[in-house]
């Protein structure tokens, strides 16, 4: 099993989208790469903690490759917009790929280069090692499964 952490705006939609992919065996939402230990949602929403709303993705690489997983991730974000996705604005809604295995960087960069060819603007998606990750509060976990009519800026049919 492999792990990657993906930030794509509001984490509810990213988690739901990723959880539907064959080969993804676990997802959790939380806060990545900020400065405060064990932040709350309310604190992250202030924009002062440095955290990004992020989805932890555990996947079986014998079923889906990191490259395919990232290609699907790139489809649901606009990587040219800084600190915003859909109507959600703030540095906590930035896009990012946070890796835990340094060997993944070559595949991440390959998909990044492919994305650059698709846009006239610069890609601002953050690509750095995971420094920290704290699970979000329980009511955020599997939010769109618990609340099927809940808010989501992502087209889940992609």
UniProtKB/TrEMBL annotation:
<comment type="function">
    <text>Has an important function as a repair enzyme for proteins that have been inactivated by oxidation. Catalyzes the reversible oxidation-reduction of methionine sulfoxide in proteins to methionine.</text>
</comment>
<feature type="domain" description="Peptide methionine sulphoxide reductase MsrA">
    <location>
        <begin position="3"/>
        <end position="153"/>
    </location>
</feature>
<feature type="active site">
    <location>
        <position position="10"/>
    </location>
</feature>
<dbReference type="InterPro" id="IPR036509">
    <property type="entry name" value="Met_Sox_Rdtase_MsrA_sf"/>
</dbReference>
<dbReference type="InterPro" id="IPR002569">
    <property type="entry name" value="Met_Sox_Rdtase_MsrA_dom"/>
</dbReference>
<dbReference type="Pfam" id="PF01625">
    <property type="entry name" value="PMSR"/>
</dbReference>
<protein>
    <recommendedName>
        <fullName>Peptide methionine sulfoxide reductase MsrA</fullName>
        <ecNumber>1.8.4.11</ecNumber>
    </recommendedName>
</protein>
<dbReference type="GO" id="GO:0008113">
    <property type="term" value="F:peptide-methionine (S)-S-oxide reductase activity"/>
</dbReference>
<keyword id="KW-0560">Oxidoreductase</keyword>
<comment type="similarity">
    <text>Belongs to the MsrA Met sulfoxide reductase family.</text>
</comment>
<dbReference type="InterPro" id="IPR050162">
    <property type="entry name" value="MsrA_MetSO_reductase"/>
</dbReference>
């Amino acid at each position: 099993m492999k792990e990657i952490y993906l930030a794509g705006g509001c984490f509810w939609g990213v988690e739901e989208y990723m959880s539907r992919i064959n080969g993804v065996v676990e997802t959790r939402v939380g806060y990545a790469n900020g400065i405060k230990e064990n932040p709350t949602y309310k604190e992250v929403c202030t924009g002062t903690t440095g955290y990004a709303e992020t989805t932890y993705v555990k996947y079986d690489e014998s079923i889906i490759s990191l490259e395919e997983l990232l290609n699907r991730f790139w489809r649901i974000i606009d990587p040219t917009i800084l600190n915003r996705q859909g109507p959600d604005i703030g540095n906590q809604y930035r896009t990012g790929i946070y890796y835990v295995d340094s060997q993944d960087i070559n595949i991440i960069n390959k998909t990044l280069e492919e994305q650059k060819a698709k846009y006239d603007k610069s890609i601002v998606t953050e690509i750095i090692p995971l420094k920290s990750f704290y699970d979000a509060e329980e009511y955020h976990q599997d939010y769109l499964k618990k609340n099927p009519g809940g808010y989501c800026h992502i087209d889940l049919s992609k």
